[in-house]
Write a structure and sequence with these properties.
The complex is a heterodimer of chains A (about 90) and B (about 375). Chain A has about 90 residues and is of the alpha+beta class. Chain A contains one helix and four strands; from the N terminus they run H-E-E-E-E. The chains are: A alpha+beta (about 90), B mainly beta (about 375). At the A-B interface, helix 1, strand 1, strand 2, strand 3 and strand 4 of A face helix 1 and strand 24 of B.
């Protein structure tokens, strides 16, 4: 009786290994699942760019040959270029 | 009993297959780039210190009206609008034009001949084209809003697209050599800033390299930004963190060869915060270099403010050998977005007014 249960357990584990292993093997190898948006606009003679990814944001402001770059984690909560909403410009 | 042994063999076999499959999927760092921090990078090779005095001894180069090129003779032809990247190919200049959603082909006299690509989200189409670069066999175009690098052969037949998170304003965040195609690393990569792909037909990912300075979730994370320029013929690459005064030189195998420290009063005035983790406080940094460009002859060009500097090398030693400001016919100092040396001419695109200028390259090769 114990042997039968053991065999059934092993078969169950084998089935799990085969199913999940199969899923894993057939996942796309480059794993392209990129969520992001990049917003660019001009304001006061400067180029403004905001890139938002799943976990970070980076904002670059280029004026007169100088670029200042800010970055943070999470979602960027402000507006850019005098009131525009990021990802809509 | 036999059945049990058979089942166990099957489990072992499956586990072995899964193990090797898992191992083959791991994206390891390129072995020749071992550094995992700025300190590591600075200790890896000798450092060459080169001082630049930002305010002294600039050579002014006047750009005449004749040197302003990119005109269209046909009334219905494509008009140069917002150049974002330049390459020289087949005796023409190929210009990535963001506003035109395509690549403008200009002959060496400066006339726009045709346009490749159009607005859209399909193959050969663009939403916000940002850059164009090439190696010996392929042309690559980068579109941050579309989130991909499109790959073409040299006749501009579409081959493939790599989905990648790109930045729009910055120059040279992607480039390619014979062996490597460089793209920004995914944000989930904890250690490295640059992903490398094979720069030949399979375009498979090869690994990652060049250290992140700031861990995810810490600040000033803006230090994790870089400029890159590659010379496709030699395979050499230079990389600079945007907020630091170092130029890191790598050979065709991505082995770190040299570090150049550009010393200036300007860098001191920037007063950028030190490289150290500062949690939960968004902080800004000012870029030191606006552009870097590695020329075929091994010269390194970089712009600080609106001045172009040239470093030349001989006997494996680098020295400052030129410092130029370009004055447009309006009397303004040109704000350089891109530069290209092709067929003995220097091509400069302007960051704000959408013009391209061409002058003989010997004007920036005079000592």
């Amino acid at each position: 009786m114990e042997g039968i249960i053991k065999t059934k357990m092993l078969n169950f584990v084998a089935a799990l290994v085969i199913v999940f292993g199969g899923i894993y093997l057939f996942l796309p190898t480059n794993g392209y699942s990129i969520m992001s948006c990049t917003s660019t606009c001009s304001y006061g003679g400067c180029d403004v760019e905001l890139a938002q990814t799943q976990s970070n944001w980076v904002m670059a402001i280029s004026c007169d040959g100088t670029t200042t770059e800010y970055a943070g984690t999470g979602d960027y909560s402000g507006t850019i270029c005098g009131g525009a909403t990021p990802c809509s410009v | 009993m036999l059945k049990m042994i058979g089942m166990r063999n099957l489990y072992s076999f499956l586990l072995v297959i899964l193990f090797f499959s898992f191992c083959s999927r791991q994206k390891t760092a390129i072995k020749s780039s071992k550094a995992s921090s700025l300190d590591d990078l600075l200790k890896e090779t000798i450092i060459t210190n080169i001082s630049i005095n930002v305010n002294a001894n600039k050579k002014e180069v006047r750009l005449s009206k004749k040197s302003k090129i990119g005109y269209t003779n046909s009334s219905s032809g494509p008009v140069l609008s917002e150049p974002r990247g330049l390459i020289g190919l087949n005796d023409s200049i190929y210009i990535a034009d963001r506003e035109q959603h395509g690549i403008l082909v200009m002959d060496l006299k400066g006339e726009i001949q045709r346009k490749i690509g159009r607005m859209g989200k399909g193959p050969g189409e663009y939403v916000a084209l940002k850059d164009i670069f090439q190696n010996d066999n392929y042309v690559f175009t980068a579109d941050p809003k579309k989130g991909e690098i499109q790959i073409f052969d040299k006749q501009f037949d579409y081959l493939k697209a790599l989905p990648v998170v790109l930045m729009a304003v910055h120059h040279h965040v992607t480039d390619a050599t014979k062996q490597f195609l460089f793209t920004p690393a995914t944000y989930s990569n904890k250690k490295y800033l640059i992903d490398t792909y094979k720069a030949t037909s399979s375009f498979k990912k090869r690994g990652s390299f060049f250290p992140k300075l700031i861990p995810n979730g810490y600040q000033p994370m803006a230090y994790n930004r870089y400029l890159i320029s590659a010379d496709a013929h030699s395979g050499n690459v230079i990389i600079a963190y945007t907020g630091l005064p170092y130029l890191f030189l790598f050979d065709e195998n991505l082995t770190h060869q040299r570090t150049i420290n550009i010393q200036s009063e300007y860098y001191k005035k920037l007063n950028n915060p030190p490289v150290r983790p500062v949690q939960n406080k968004p902080m800004g940094i000012k870029w030191v270099f606006q552009n870097i460009y590695l020329a075929e002859d091994g010269s390194i060009f970089f712009t600080v403010r609106r001045t172009l500097y040239r470093l030349s090398s001989s006997n494996d030693k680098f020295r400052l050998s030129g410092k130029y400001q370009f004055l447009t016919d309006d009397g303004d100092t040109l704000n350089i977005r891109n530069m290209l040396i092709y067929h003995s001419n220097l091509y400069l695109s302007s960051a704000y007014d959408g013009f391209i200028y061409s002058i003989p390259a010997k004007r920036i090769y005079k000592n």
